[in-house]
Amino acid sequence: MKFTDGYWMMREGVQASYAAEVADVRVDEDRCTLYAPVRHVTRRGQTLNSPLLTVECWSPAEGVIGIRSTHHAGAAERGPEFALRTEPGHAARVTREGSLLELTAGELSLRVDTAAPWRLDFTADGRVLTSATARGTGFAVLGDGSHHSLAQLTLDVGELVYGLGERFTPFVKNGQSVDIWQADGGTASEQAYKNVPFHLSNRGYGVFVNHPGKVSYEVGSEAVGQVQFSVEDQSLEYFVVYGPTPKDVLDRYTALTGRPALPPAWSFGLWLSTSFTTSYDEETVNRFVRGMAERDIPLGVFHFDCFWMREYQWCDFTWDPEVFPDPEGMLRRLKEEHGLRVSVWINPYIAQKSPLFAEAKRHGYLVRKADGDVWQWDLWQAGMALVDFTDPDAREWYASKLRALTAQGVDCFKTDFGERIPTDVVWHDGSDPERMHNYYTQLYNETVFEVLSEARGAGEAVLFARSATAGGQQFPVHWGGDCESHFGAMAESLRGGLSLGLSGFGFWSHDIGGFEGTPTPEVFKRWVQFGLLSSHSRLHGSKSYRVPWDYDEEAVAVTRDFTRLKHRLMPYLFRAAQQAAERGTPMMRAMVLEFPDDPACHTLDRQYMLGDDLLVAPVFSADGVVDYYVPDGTWTHLLSGKQVQGPGWRRERYGYDSLPLLARPGSVIPYGDCDDAAEYDWAHGVTLRVHTPVDGATVTTRIPDRGARDGSAAVFRTTRHGDTVTVAAEGAPGPWRVLLVGARAEPGDTGSPASAERTALGTLLAVSAGTTHLTAHLTGG
Predict the structure, then answer these.
(1) Signal sequence: where (predicted)?
(2) Which alpha helices (H) appear in 295-391, and where do they start and end?
């Protein structure tokens, strides 16, 4: 929200007050409170008839400092609140020397000169990260009487801002006005399904606004050198989170708001959907599944969209008996004959025609208006009502319906909707409707995730969720919502995913081919490449199917080849997934996250890093021409072995069998020995693809254990000294191989014997089970 009219004046009807100085300080051992008048006070009489802001300063964890500015503190505290995690045993340190007050939390400090005009400096590594200056702390009262607490933090020269949830507007948020407010706006507007009041700066810090309701941002769009955020409330709380790297910021931010759960290995395979309003029954499902098998396209999950239930009755959690007369038998056959997991679509609404409506109304499980009537409307479903997840009994009632489905054989749920939450209602627990609007999705997804965790066991729960807010990363996976079916929509989807990744979400997907409309074969094939080089991969549409043979035979080949490539990459991809769960580093990473010291990477939004070492540049054109940037070093095309020297821009043309997919200089990419499933013994028979190893460097490659999930089945250490490459293995359960990409080599004299084979990509060295040491001599290339 903008409060000013240019630099000098306020907008009509706005009265703004800002902290002017520090009048008094209360210092405790690990926190301090500043009392700030809104004007410079030189005599006692000026303390009358004027506001005094209370500004509390503390630290919940090392590298994180919290600020809470309050005007009137008498308001009743009504939820909901974000569940934040403090660091056990952490305590900030407060020192005072003369007029200088400093609160220190690890490497991050807050400095305040109590004798100077108002200024809060957040410092680290000998520099000021950002500051709240003359208009940095205050409030504004509008003509309608509404009270808005606000803060401004300075932007440095060249400073860029990212994040704020899954936003499809320009990737860099500078110059944008952003409202953190859940909306069902598709992927082609400023509205967003996943709104997160957290922004990340390329200057080594992030800021989380601890308010679950509407937060209004002006990112250099009102005061061009400031990020302003405001809430309609008497107080405003925010946390400055230090890095110094962007990965470190996300590590600390997700430690505060919750780490992403680690999805099960099978969820990384290809998902196929019935699509939305298309005509389908069990025969359609069988035709799709058989068609994939006949064309050698491995399928991991089959998804039933809305019309698995009867029309006008969403959600009643009951299979349409006319379309699916034997759901238990059908699910059993899909599992036994095809080895598939099953996903079904749900939402948090109960239509009036559903028998569950009367049941839920009778028990008081539906959200009500102030007069006691159930809140309803006809948008989406006729007479639709909303489950009140603030009521523990309603939550358990909803969960019981899901347990019945898991007992039938359903493995996971697509948790659709959760954005259009009314504010003219009364919640069971007395929550503030404005604060609950964004937060509702957290309760919804948490309820479903808990059911799956109980039913399927630890580590086996996975959602396909559309809406989310801060902390929602704990319940993956999230997908990008309703996009069109053209190259522009494909690019905007990627922008949204990269933005969400910089907001603490580790796992993200999108509708391959687009949702609305029908893609051309060209769009479909390029989107398949992009989708199968994403965290999770789902073929889904609205009014048309997404089976590849509906497009052309080449689409079948592209789908088959890239699905099998993803399966081969599972030892690498699941390790990246573990990193997301351990530190909050997303699997799909904006280039700035991986290369913060390369300014050319700071604005890139049409390419990304998939894990630590793979650069992906999807093709967004029918002619196959793609422009992409390569950071410093010698990069290697994963599919062709061609080397590309960076830094610099490349313009290349690709057929549908390829795209820019480059291995990082010096990287070792583990390839699994199976390409027909995502879940297998990744370490057995693994091939280590070694790319331009750096002399004197050792690269450690950990192959995850799909059973232990949090450990490694095998660890390989690859070292180059001159013309000698040595690989040491620990815990390898069977034979393994080393492919020296782009190099000619012979087995060395030490370690177990290895056979050498020249391939189009380089030299392949194979060793037998039990080998713990391999040495190779480079002979050229």
Answers:
(1) none
(2) 327-338, 355-363
What backbone phi and psi angles, to 5 degrees, belong to 372? 95, -10
Whether the Cβ atoms of residue 659 and residue 618 lie closer than 8 Å to each other: yes
Residue 598 has a CB neighbour count (10 Å cut-off) of 16
Question: Within 10 Å of residue 8's Cβ, how many Cβ atoms?
Answer: 6
d(CA 395, CA 328): 25
What is the average pLDDT value for the chain, to the nearest integer?
A: 96
Name 342's bridge partners: 302
Beta carbons of 745 and 779 less than 8 angstroms apart: yes
As to burial, measured by CB atoms within 10 angstroms (0-12 exposed, 13-18 middle, 19+ buried), residue 408 is middle
Question: Rounded mean pLDDT of 756-762?
Answer: 94
> φ and ψ at 131, to 5 degrees?
-145, 150
Q: What pLDDT score was predicted for residue 207?
A: 99
Cβ distance 38 to 19 under 8 Å? yes
Q: Is 674 exposed, middle or buried (0-12, 13-18, 19+ CB in 10 A)?
A: middle
**Distance (Å, whole) CA 513 – CA 522:** 10
Question: How much is the pLDDT for 188?
Answer: 96
* Distances, alpha carbon 626 to alpha carbons 246, 616, 678, in Å: 27, 11, 29
pLDDT digits over 84-111, tens only?
Answer: 999 898 999 999 999 999 999 999 999 9
What is the Cα–Cα distance from 612 to 253, expressed in whole angstroms?
20
Q: Report the pLDDT averaged over residues 135-162.
A: 98
- pLDDT confidence of 282, banded at 50, 70, 90? very high
773 in helix, strand or coil? strand
Distance of CA 485 to the CA centre of its chain: 22
- Which residues are identified as catalytic? 416, 419, 482
Contact 34, 67 (CB under 8 A): no
Read off the tokens for 644. 């590309």
Q: What is the CA radius of gyration of the chain?
A: 28
Is a pLDDT exceeding 90 seen at residue 752?
Answer: no
Average pLDDT over residues 755-764: 94
3 state DSSP class of 394: helix
